[in-house]
Amino acid sequence: MNELLEKMLSARGIEYLILCENFKILEMSSGVNRFAEDSPELQHNQDIRICFPELIGVEEILKAILREEENNFELKGIIRFPDTSSTLYIDIYIIKNIKENSYRNELIIFVEDSTERMNIEQSLMQGANEANLLLSTLIASKQYIDQIVTSMADGLVVTTLSGKIKTINPAAQSLLEYNEAELRGQPISTVIGEMARGGEERITITDNQEQTTAFIKDIETVCYTKSGKKVPIAFSCSVVQTKIENFQGYVYILRDITERKQVELVKQEFLAMISHEVRTPITSVTGMASLLLNTKLSVEQQDFVKTIETSGNALLAIVNDFLDFSKIESGKLELEAQPFALQSCVNEALYMLAPPAKEKGLKLSFIDTSEIFSLIIADITRLRQILINLLSNAIKFTETGSVEVSTIAREIDKNPEGKKSYEIQFAVKDTGIGIPRDRIERLFKAFSQVNSSMTREYGGTGLGLAICKKLSELMGGRIWVESEPGVGSTFYFTITAPVVEERVENVCKDVAINTYIAEEHPLKILLVEDNILNQKIVQHLLQRMGYEADLANNGLEAILALRRQSYNVILMDVHMPEMDGLTATQRICKEWTPELRPRIVAMTASGMWGERERCLASGMNDYLCKPIGIQQLMQVLQRCQPMTNY
C-alpha cells in the first residue's frame, strides 16, 4: 500500500493487513498490533487467525470474497481489554485486494478503533432506557396521584400564587356545586370566605423561591356554594412548587364540618344545662354542709355532714372535669398569661391537699430547685389544676409512705420581647400501688383507667389525666409517667413559660424570713464551703434566722469536724478542693449509720440537668441551687429533725 494512503488511514484510526489466500500476513501497518488479541506480536507469514481469533470459522466467506462471489465482510463491536482500566472496541472490514498485473489472490483487512462510537451508542441506549423507565414511573405516579385525588372524601382546590383557581377534584365539585370549568381562573375568595382568620398570612414564598412557612392547618370558616348556601368547613393550605411549567401556588384541602358543628352545638347545649342544673344545687349542698360543720353537732352528726360535704365535692369535681374536657376538646379553653410565683402555686396545691394526706398518714413534701427566677408568666389556675389532679391521684393510690413534688428548669430561648423562656419540669412522686407497664398507655386517654376495678374501688371518671395532658400541651409541654407496680409512680409534666427578670442578686435582700425559726426548730449546723464570700452570705442568712453554724473549708475538714461532735445538718458544697462534697458524703455514709449521721444538704451552683440526681445518689438528703434563697433555705432546714443523740 502506498505511503500516502497508509497515512490517511492512520489519521482516521484505521490500520490494515494484507493476507494471502492461505490467510497469512503479507503486509501490515505499523499500528495494527494494538488491535490484536492478547498474544505474540503480528509477524509476516503468520496466520491472521492467531491474533484475530474472530476470523476463525469465517474462512468460507473469506474464500468467497477471493473468488469475487462476495464483495465484503464486516465484524463490528469486537471488544478488547488492553488493561484492567480500559476497554477497546474495533470494527473489522474485509475486501479483496485488487492489484493490476497481479496474479495473486489477496485479502485486505481494515481494522478501525470504534471505542468512542460504541461508548456513545451505549450511553445513548442507557439514557433511552432510563428515560423510558422514568416516563413509565411518572405515568404510573400520575395515575396513582390522580386516583388518590379523585377518590378523596375531602375537597381539593389548587390555586396560583395570586389565588386564581387552577383545578379542583370531584369532592370539591360536589361540595361547592360547581364543575371545574366554571371555577377555573376564579379567585379562591369566590368559594372560601373569611380567609383572614389567622391562616393565609402565614403562607409565604421568599424571593429565592424557597418555602418559608409552608403549611397551615384546620382554619375554620365557611364556603359558598353555587346555590348560595354557606357550608361550614375546616381548610388546610400549603405551598406547592413544581419544576414542571415552573408552577407555584397553593393547595387547599376543604372538609365539610356541618355534622361536627351540629354535634358541638348539641354538646354545648347539654353542658350548659349540666352547668346550671347540676352545679348550682351541688354548690348549695357543699356550702350548707360546710356551714353545718361549724355549728354544735354530735360526733355522729359531724360524720354525716362530713360525708355529705365530701360526696358533694367529689361530684362537683366530676362535673368540672367534664366541663373542662369539653372546653379543651372544642378548642374553647383560653389560657391566661399573668406573672406569679411558681413556688407559691405549688405550695397552694400542697396546702389544699394536706388534709387528705394527713388523714392517711402520708408525708407531703416539695423539693424546689427552680430558684433561678422568682416569677413566671403563665396560667396559674391551670397549672395549679394539673398539680392538684396529679397530687390527688398520688394520695388516692398511696396507702403508706410519701408524696413528693419537685421542679427543675432549663432555659431554652428568648422571645421577641427579649424575655427569657424556660422549660419547667414538675415531678409528682408517690410510693403507691404503681401501674403495670402494659397499662400505662391507657392512662392519658379520656374515660380510661388502668382497669375497670379502679372505678369501683377508687372512683373517678378517667378524665383527670386526659385533662392534664391537654393542659400541659396547651402550655407548651408534655406529660409522661414512670412506674413500677408495688413501688410507686412518678408523673412528670413540663410547661414552657417566660420569666419576669426579678432575680435575687443577693440572697440577703430576701426579707421573707422567720427570725424565730432557730427557737422553734433548733439545729446544730455545719457549713462546708470553700468560697469565703459564699461562707459569709450563708452564715449571715443563718444568723438572721438565729442559727450559729460551724465552718469547714472542704470535705476532709467536714469529716474531721463530724468525728469531733454531732450535727443535725450539714450544708455541703459540691465542688471543693482537697475533697469534694460528693466524695465526702459517700465517706460519711460509710462511717456513720443512718440513725447517727446528720441530714446532708447539697449546695451547688451547677444548673446542669442530672445534678440533683447525682447528689442524691451519693447519699445526700436534699438539694439547694445557688444563689440560695431564704425561703428555700428555711424550707430545707425545717425538713431537718434534731438527732436523738444531739
Folded structure, characterized:
The protein is an alpha+beta fold. Helix content is 38%, strand content 25%. It has helices spanning 3-11, 48-51, 59-66, 115-151, 170-176, 180-183, 258-293, 299-329, 342-359, 380-396, 452-458, 464-474, 517-520, 532-545, 555-564, 581-591, 611-617, 630-638; strands at 14-19, 25-28, 72-83, 86-97, 106-113, 155-160, 165-168, 215-224, 230-241, 248-256, 338-341, 363-368, 375-378, 402-414, 420-430, 479-484, 488-500, 525-528, 550-552, 569-573, 599-604, 622-625. The strands form 4 sheets. Strands 11, 12, 13, 14, 15, 16 and 17 form a 7-stranded mixed β-sheet that branches. A 5-stranded antiparallel β-sheet has the order 2-1-5-4-3. A 5-stranded antiparallel β-sheet has the order 7-6-10-9-8. Helix 14 (532-545) links the parallel strand 18 (525-528) and strand 19.
